[in-house]
Structure formats: C-alpha cells, structure tokens
C-alpha cells in the first residue's frame, strides 16, 4: 500500500510544471529515505499505513493553515454525523453539579417523557454508577456514553420517599437550530439561532411566522455564540431580509477573480425593523449573515466584535473512508472587508493574509477581522454575591424546595418579601450571609433568578428563558433600538 501511495504521488507530479516536479520528487526522495531508515532499524515492527495516515498526511496538512485537516475514516464519519444535525439521546434538559444531575425539562415525545421523568427529578445512578462520586467531567462523559444504548437510572423524586428505577432507550433526536422564539413586547420578537444547519432557514421562517410574520413591527435576531455552519443556509437566511439584487458577499479564491453573490429576483422578504446581536463567539456563516445585513443598512448590529472566521472549506472524500478538509477561498463582506482575522504570522497563512487598509495619511494599518458592531454593548457582569450564589447553585436548589411544597406558580408570579426572607434563611444555613449593602445591590437580580428557576421547574426551560431575557442588557438595548427605528 505504501509503495502504491508513492506511485500515486509521482503520477500526479506529471501534472505539474518542471520546477514543481523537481521539488516534489526531491521531497519524496527524502521521505522515502526516512521511511527506509525507520523500516530497517526501528526496534519494533511498525504499520506503514498507520504511520502515513496518522502521521505524515495530518502533519503535512497542518502546515497549510489552522483550519485545513486530514480526516481519517472515523473523523470523517463523525463530521458527517454532525452535519446530519441529529444525535442519539433521551430528550431531557439536565442541570449538572459535581455528583448531581437534576432534570429541568423533558422534551415532548422524547424517551425521557415516555419513561415518566419529570422536572425536578434527581438522577442518582446510571447503569450502576453512583453519580455522587463523580466530578463534572466524569459525569458528562458518563451521560454521553449512556446515550448510546439502553440506560438504567435510579431516580429520586422530591414528592416520593422511595427511589424509582427508570429504563431509557435512546432515540434519534433532531437538533433544532432555532432555540428561542419569544414575543418580548407587542410587535417585537426575539429569535435565537444557535447554528446554521440544513434545516435552519425553514426553522427560522416558521419561527418568524409564529411570532406574526409580516405583521411584526420588529425582530431581534440573536446570533450570540453561533459558530456558523452551512453557508448555503446562511445565504438563504439573508434573503429573508434583503431586497432582490442586493449583495450578500464576495468570494475570493487564490487565483480566480472576485465573485459576488446577490439576492435573486422574485423572492418575498420581510420589511420589519431588525437588530442583530453578536459576540466574540459569533463566527463563520453567522458572520456572513451579520455583515450582509450591516453593509446593506438593513439591521443595526449590537454586542461585541465577532470571532473572525471567513474562509471557505471544501471536503474532498478520499479512499478507505478518509477525507481532506481544505481551505480553498475566503469570504469578503459586501463592502469587501476581510472577515477572517489574522492568525499568527499572516505571511504564512495562505489565504487569510492580513489586509492592509489606508488610513488616509499615506500609511496603512491591518484589519482585525470579524464584524465590528454598530454599537458595542458588553454582557452583564456579576457582583461578588451574585457569583457566589451562581457557583453554589443556590437559586436552583432553593427553587426545588419551593416546588417540593406543592406550590404551582402562575405566569404572573411575583417574588414576595416573604419568599426572599425564606431564601435568606436558606442561604444562612449554607453559611452564605451577605451584608445589607450586598443584598440590596443584588436584589433585582436575585428576584429575577429565583423566578427563572421556579419557572424552569414548573413550566419548562422556555418559560424560564423569558425571565432571563428581560434582564439581558444587550437584548434590552436591542429592543430600544428597534423601537427607535419603528418610530422613524
């Protein structure tokens, strides 16, 4: 097989010009010489195929740029599985602490719901392993492993004295891209897109229609933490908001000319006011959506500068189930700004070189990559007390006790002073005794977090998200900006 590989490489050398052929043949001779020395002198026999597929080929591709990669058959299969946007699972949302796993929500029609798991149930053991003995990392690994086959759980339910055995059989579950669909105020919606997969555009359109479609006054499109995904889906998403013939992006290859991509004629689009939220984890396809809406003046962009990944990767299947993920071009915004951020010494990064831009005084400076928001809004930080309450999981565990009393809150729940007094007593028993100044400063946050966790347990995570959104400074600023555009 190894000799066939050398012959294969030499065959392709016939497609190169004379100087390139000489360089390739010289390099191959060096490779063959090293290989022969290893083959003749290594203390133990070795597998040439393994050495090439796990050593030589991956090592060669790593010298090109940080994103190109040689994928063996297992890695390629994992990539294809990710692109299918489905995974095996039980369909439950779980709160994890060292040694503890507590169910927050079971998804409709999922194995967890069918088996009778309820919000508030604590999983004590999985397949004979006691969770109380495991740190977070091992707990995550155990739960991920359990999703691959039948899992036997031991569950403690707050309202029942005895422990409950529950068997779960994992099923293929869709992994939705649109994770939050909320109507924040009359006529103003909020949609969070977690990533861009094959079905994302359809999910997004359905979400917009659910909120009111063309009757909406404004929409906040939340792309924070969105790592990107399928570019074709991102392009389709942009067409929901831009007019025909408006430019979406430029494509620039190593040797080829710039190619521009525009909105096709005849597509229906939404005209409501639009704000887009981004942060440092917004990347790739999500940045293409953001830059197209920004450069065309269609949306106001709020948050933090995005990650800066604007390259095109093509995957080429190879023999024996392997594949090559190769950087083949890069994207530019409609105004021809470079999205890709500089990586190390820009001179050795083949396509995403540092771009020089004129400062207007005869000198140049380097672009930083990423998308700069129209208005920088930082996320809310924590006070010392708030950080302690979060790290000790105090809000969730107190809310569990609240629910254990059999109290079912209504949608207009107000965190009363009496409930706050009970929470303070709960904290005191845990040796958390804030000063009056600390308590007063954090009081609004404490009320919101208690309400959120009570709603998580009583109505599901989506209802809790509604409470969380209303204390998010980036979302609140986006609402104000959308209102201003509506008033104009």
TL;DR?
The chain is 39% helix and 22% strand. It is an alpha+beta fold and 488 residues long.
Characterization of this structure:
The model is unreliable at 10-16 and 345-366 (pLDDT under 50). Helix content is 39%, strand content 22%. The chain has four domains: 2-66, no CATH class; 86-174, PDZ domain (Pdz3 Domain, Roll), CATH 2.30.42.10; 178-319 and 329-376, 2-enoyl-CoA Hydratase, Chain A, domain 1; 384-471, no CATH class. By secondary structure, the chain is of the alpha+beta class. It contains 16 helices and 21 strands. The protein is globular. Strand 13 (247-253) and strand 14 form a beta hairpin. The chain has helices at 2-13, 18-41, 48-62, 73-83, 111-115, 136-146, 200-211, 231-239, 285-295, 384-391, 394-404, 417-429, 436-441, 443-459, 461-469, 473-487, and strands at 69-71, 86-89, 92-97, 100-106, 122-126, 129-130, 151-156, 164-168, 171-174, 178-185, 188-193, 218-222, 247-253, 259-262, 273-278, 300-303, 311-317, 323-332, 356-358, 364-366, 375-376. Strands 3, 4, 5, 6, 7 and 8 form a six-stranded antiparallel beta sheet that branches. Strands 10-11-12-15-16-21 form a six-stranded mixed beta sheet, with helices on both faces.
**Chain-averaged pLDDT:** 83
Q: What about the largest sheet? A: 6 strands, antiparallel
Percent of residues in beta strands: 15-25%
What number of structural domains do the residues give? Answer: 4
Structural class: alpha+beta
CATH architecture field of the largest domain: Alpha-Beta Complex
What helical percentage do the residues reach?
25-40%
Q: What do we call the CATH homologous superfamily of the largest domain?
A: 2-enoyl-CoA Hydratase, Chain A, domain 1
CATH class of the largest domain: Alpha Beta
Taking all Cα atoms into account, the compactness measure Rg is 27 Å
Number of helices: 16
Silhouette: globular
Distance between the termini: 70 Å
- Unreliable runs, pLDDT <50, ≥5 residues? 10-16, 345-366
Number of strand segments: 21
CATH topology of the largest domain: 2-enoyl-CoA Hydratase, Chain A, domain 1
